[in-house]
Amino acid sequence: MKFFIDTANLDQIREAQDLGVLDGVTTNPSLMAKEGITGEANILKHYVDICNIVTGDVSAEVIATDYAGIVSEGERLAKLHPQIVVKVPMIKDGIKAIRYFSNKGIKTNCTLVFSAGQALLAAKAGATYVSPFLGRLDDINYDGVELISQIVHIYRMYDYPTQVLAASIRNPLHIVRCAEAGADVATCPLNAILDLLKHPLTDIGLAKFLADAKKFQTESVK
Ligand code: G3P
User: What is the pTM of this model?
Assistant: First the structure.
């Protein structure tokens, strides 16, 4: 399973990249606003800055919601850098635009997906990635990971090349359960990735190894 980081924060992207486990980045308008990135020129420059830090795909989301607007904004984004993936919302004009981009060889990420039916449409339109938001489903008492399994099952049955990009991940258990469900990608906040490191027995074991090593060194000096 590929690991993407779900942020527009350059320091966090660098930290995940330095860890050596990062395969790409996803952003959205809320994440860009959180970093204070506003105005078209700044937004476009920020996407290029992100592409220059990582080697994998970088999702950049369109703001337009009509077909012509999505197409022209998406083409502008795609021209920015070969790593850019145009992120398009799961709406009627979005699906039409994904078909257009797919025919032109422009990579897409169909976002705001909350049902298997929506995921099926995204695959039919030729989306490169589909982004089911599992955390937001959990928030309203639906099983988000169950949706990931359902989409993976359907895509495998029909050999759709669209990759299942599990989004709205909130914790390390979400990441592990997405891996079990067969998601192609998990896009996660940095803290969820770092929390995968944690286990109390690792800390206790390491403390004991270091204490024993110190004892051994002291004894050899005597
Ligand atoms: O990038 C989309 C998605 O990951 C948003 O997550 O936590 O705002 O539901 P969240």
Answer: 0.95
